[in-house]
## 1
Amino acid sequence: MNLPRIVPSPHLADVRYEIRGPLARRADELAKAGFDIIKLNVGNPGAFGFRAPESMRRAIIENLEHADPYSHQKGIFPAREAVVMQQQSRGVMDVTVDEVFMGNGVSELIMIALRALLADGDEVLIPSPDYPLWTAATVLNGGKAVHYPCPRADGYLPDVAALEQLITPRTRALVIINPNNPTGAVYPKAVLEGMVRIAEKHQLVIFSDEIYDQILYDGATHVPLATLAKNTLVGTFGGLSKVYRACGYRVGWLSFSGPKAHAKDYLLALDLLAGLRLCSNVPGQWAVQTALGGHQSIWELTRPGGRLHETRRAVLEGVKRSRYLETTVPHGAIYAFLNVKRELLPGFDDKRFALDLLERKHVFVTPGHGFNVPYHDAFRITLLPDEETMKEVFLRVEDLLDTYAKGALAAKG
């Protein structure tokens, strides 16, 4: 029986997510064949032995009897109230529980925030490099992703002047990812102020992705974007996945600050979309109040001697020892964005390298082009393995790059 081919939606034609794309499927095949794969493609703390704080697990267990029904579409009151209190502690005083939406992770909230905002052809300013879900969500909801440059030469900080040149009458929103995924850049206050002034001047909604807000190294300081913006709507995203090592709980939040009277219809549209998915994971929401109050255990991991700090140090030492690699020091988040020295490997292609590294060395990294950059000489790794594993990774990477270099020399000869 010949069945007609099922054709996927044309909306997916320009959607890319290399973090879990074809390379991930090949990694799964190799693992099923018995190979041990070092997976550096996803920032998934639990897969590397990190645990959510015990107090969060207890909070879920003790409230399971309250978790059977659907919650309000915006989320349970204690979780939303905890987000409000956290924002107030940071100087953001104009958020109420009615302006907080709980979601099945930040990913779901990104999707519905853009779905509620965009008409076909509307434009969203997104950093390059970006976290590719922002680009994908824009495209899936009929919009056009316009990537503003964050040059390597400037430590991957946004080029504010270039950003403003990209604004058109169809531009609706500005996305800021700080601390940044994939580069680990932490934006100075002056850069953020410049971006805010542009958004206010052009009446753009600001979406501030701050999921890594407390993962900082070497004295870096995170400035909450909402403390700087007074004359435009700001949506701030946070969640339990990274700082609290609870990716599987699928709990994120989106809070709105700034003027809201002009955004009433937009916020009602978000409420409608939140209602259509009924509610987010209720058991996980009961961990939010406990997570946001009290001691923040992430600091034990990011300070000198802490696991994230020491793995980051191993990465920087590995780059320093390498003949071929460079990186901008990551001051936040859980990634390093590495690039090769083009003068030593002029024919380097990140996609080919990522596949070769997986097939030959059983290390899985994400090629740089997956983060919507115009160059092909970079790749991202996560800082989650222990430092000994990371040292082994750099030995394997260097061996493969040596092979490339010898091949280039042989071709010249």
## 2
Amino acid sequence: MKKIRITLVKSPIDRPERQKLTLQALGLNKLNASKEVEATPQILGMVRKVEHMISVEDVA
């Protein structure tokens, strides 16, 4: 399965609680934290919900 690297680039302060919980579920707790995850439909759905606060890149 394809892997992606997600990085938190904007602070979750003053965001809805649901978006904060989504970031926590992705494993992004601190600013500039990165995580490599499998690109499953569930993960891609979570990424889509918070795409304005993260950057996404493919991992070869």
